[in-house]
Design goal:
The protein is α+β, with helices and mostly antiparallel strands. It is built from 25 helices and 19 strands. Bound molecules: adenosine-5'-triphosphate. GO terms for molecular function: ATP binding; sequence-specific DNA binding.
């Protein structure tokens, strides 16, 4: 920013703080500016970079916040993929504004680092003035700090949207922030960030209370098992241990009021009754009433996550700290872990048949596919149809586990084996998969020393839990998967050749979503998953979804649909409900919501032609007859051109 503009900015800040002008974009910003001047003694005309923690400070903080970071990591990556914009960072700070984890492209990092957006940087209000992360902490609520809302002029190129993340005790534990150079309103992003924060909080509850009974509830049955559900965790004696934000809101209670309370003081029922009725109802929501009131709720009580048959734990979803049962929108009985998977694509049909044949003979199966392309769902389908279907399906993601934990996760340990070990010891995943299937996802990320140990297990079919010297025989079907090319890794010396041969009894490549012919069916099934089997999509939304390149594959599609369902709140899904797919706001807002799905696939000339045609269409309110006339072409020619340029035809065209 030129010096004169920086000085203007500083004057404006002081004027607002002195109350001479009322020209801050909102009260939150004005209050924050006042704090910066009056409490922190900051000067907006001075350049101030956030201090960066040195030495052991950052690793120490990261260790203390390990569970939060692990629970947030996956959701942050998903959010980043959903936003699909390399010019932004998804950031997690602690409540002192220290950046603990970031998802950021190298390109944006180069731009953002000189501004202090780096691991260990302290973005508290006291250090750098009004900013998304620090002001969110100070304000204890969601904030948007857009460009000139920043206190220091050097940050006025940034836009930061931040929301608090609460721990199971209801205390703010972290801040989730998206920082970019966006000049656009951040309303949609704020919704997405809030949703992501809620997902992280639910994971934190699962991680902290693995041995407790989860109770899912909502006043509307279709919201049970969705992000909007209230969630309580209850001990065996029926006492409430924790509640998520939705539960607190729905029950009108604070965390302290709920903690330790017997369930029957909250609902007119006991835990045993709820468990029994939930089981009888095949885990469809059952009716229950608020204690001492007439409010009706729909609820499902379940056994603790780790006791439920083969819960839908994916390694990518951060075990061992936080294994969680993916909340199915359509309730399924425990043990019945498969979602309504779709395998309508001819290549997948053939692969599934091949996989079933080879697995019947006990041959190890290696899957290769892009991230989120459905490797685990495919592996589950193979397991479900094989002769081990009665046995457990145990999944572990080698990429999402810290190296130090893979070993104990796989091989287990006995009680007291090392500091921090669980009191009763733990059976390793390999032992748990006895009689069933062991799914090793992202096997390419397994460290070399552990590859040797795994190889030995595969050869001997015996495991020796950590801290013991008694090998135990074990019988499991191995399915492994990676998005990396293991053969190439072997050639580079990054993966053991002998292990590769052991894993790849047969190797199958699963197609990415953009190449699958069954996309429409998948979308329908995912909407069923989200409890919105009846959801209508506008033609433009269909067009967008069917042609999007989906770099994050099915996982991204699932998340995008989940957000859209939440944003639409019961209405038909239109372009405006898919903000992360980069539909230009003006286009999405136009009548009939015609979309701009695939600029990425157009040549630069076509993209230019598309942009100018969109302008004309917009200026003529999408009246195709008028536009055709103004361009001197027939309506049919215009339709063909729109089709070529991937501009959906509107209902009023
Ligand atoms: N065949 C399918 N039909 C419908 N939905 C699917 C299918 N396969 C995957 N999904 C959806 O995509 C999500 C990701 O699937 P899955 O976990 O199997 O992918 P993955 O390739 O193992 O992911 P990662 O590479 O991140 O480990 C699932 O939660 C589910 O919502």
């Amino acid at each position: 920013m030129p010096v004169s503009e920086a000085l203007d900015h500083a004057h404006r800040v002081f004027d607002v703080v002195r109350g001479e002008i009322l020209h801050a974009s909102n009260d939150v910003v004005a209050q924050s500016w006042a704090r910066c001047v009056q409490q922190h003694g900051l000067d907006p005309s001075q350049r101030r970079l956030p201090p960066v923690l040195g030495g052991v400070d950052l690793p120490g903080r990261q260790r203390r916040m390990a569970t939060v970071i692990e629970c947030a990591r996956y959701e942050m990556t998903t959010l980043y993929q959903q936003l699909g914009d390399p010019a932004l960072a998804v950031v997690l700070t602690d409540t002192e504004g220290v950046i603990l984890h970031m998802v950021i492209s190298q390109e944006f990092e180069r731009l953002a680092q000189p501004l202090g957006l780096s691991l260990g940087a302290v973005w508290s209000e006291a250090e750098v003035g009004t900013n998304g992360m620090g002001t969110c902490v100070a304000q204890a609520g969601p904030v948007v700090v857009q460009q000139a809302d920043h206190f220091q002029s050097q940050y006025t190129g940034l836009t930061c949207t931040a929301v608090p993340v609460y721990d199971p005790a209801g205390q703010m534990t972290a801040v989730l922030d998206v920082s970019s150079r966006s000049i656009h309103p951040q309303n949609h992003l704020l919704v997405l960030l809030n949703m992501t924060a809620r997902m992280i909080e639910n994971r934190l509850i699962d991680a902290r209370f693995r041995d407790a009974h989860p109770i899912h509830f909502h006043s509307r049955p279709e919201f049970v098992y969705t992000l909007h559900e209230g969630k309580l965790v209850v001990d065996d004696g029926g006492r409430i241990l924790a509640a998520n934000q939705s539960a607190l809101t729905q029950l009108g209670a604070t965390p302290t009021e709920l903690r330790g309370k017997p369930l029957e003081q909250v609902f007119q029922t006991t835990l045993d009754d709820m468990l029994e009725r939930s089981q009888r109802a095949a885990f469809h929501p059952i009716v229950t009433y608020r204690a001492n009131a007439a409010n009706r709720f729909f609820a499902v009580a379940r056994q603790p996550v780790h006791e439920e048959g083969t819960p839908r734990i994916t390694g990518a979803q951060v075990p061992p700290i936080a294994p969680r049962v993916q909340p199915p929108a359509r309730p399924r009985p425990p043990g019945h872990a498969m979602p309504a998977a779709t395998f309508g694509d001819p290549r997948l049909v053939a692969h599934l048949a091949t996989a079933r044949r080879v697995v019947a003979g006990g041959t190890p199966l290696l899957l290769r596919a892009e991230t989120g392309a459905g490797k685990e769902v495919f592996a589950r389908a193979v397991h479900a149809s094989g002769n081990r279907t009665g046995g457990p399906f145990v999944a572990i993601n080698c990429a999402s586990l810290p190296e130090s934990l893979i070993e104990s996760e796989l091989f287990g340990y006995r009680a007291g084996a090392f500091t921090g070990a669980e009191k009763g010891g733990r059976r390793g995943k390999i032992a748990q998969s006895d009689g069933g299937t062991l799914f090793l996802d992202e096997i390419g990320d397994m460290p070399l020393p552990l590859q040797a140990r795994l190889l030995r297990v595969l050869d001997e079919r015996m495991v020796t839990p950590l801290g013991t010297d008694e090998p135990r025989p074990i019988d499991f079907q191995l399915i492994s998967a990676s998005h990396r090319n293991l053969a190439e890794m072997v050639a580079e010396g990054e993966f053991r050749q002998d292990l590769y041969y052991r894993l790849a009894g047969i190797e199958l490549e699963l197609p990415p979503l953009r190449e699958r012919g069954d996309r429409a069916e998948i979308i329908r099934n995912l909407l069923v998953e989200e409890g919105r089997a009846d959801a209508a999509l506008t033609p433009a939304a269909w067009d967008l979804l069917l042609h999007h390149p989906w770099p994050g594959n099915l996982r991204q599609l699932h998340h995008v649909l989940r957000s859209a369902v939440a944003l639409a709140a019961g209405a038909a899904l239109g372009l405006e409900h898919f903000p992360s797919l980069n539909v230009p706001a003006s286009v999405a807002a136009a009548a009939g919501a015609p979309g701009a799905p695939e600029e990425a696939f157009l040549s630069p000339q076509d993209a230019e032609e598309r942009a100018s045609l969109l302008n004309v269409l917009e200026s003529q309110r999408w009246n195709v007859s008028h536009v055709a006339k103004s361009l001197g072409v027939s309506r049919n020619t215009l339709y063909r051109r729109m089709h070529r340029l991937r501009i959906p035809v509107t209902h009023n065209g």
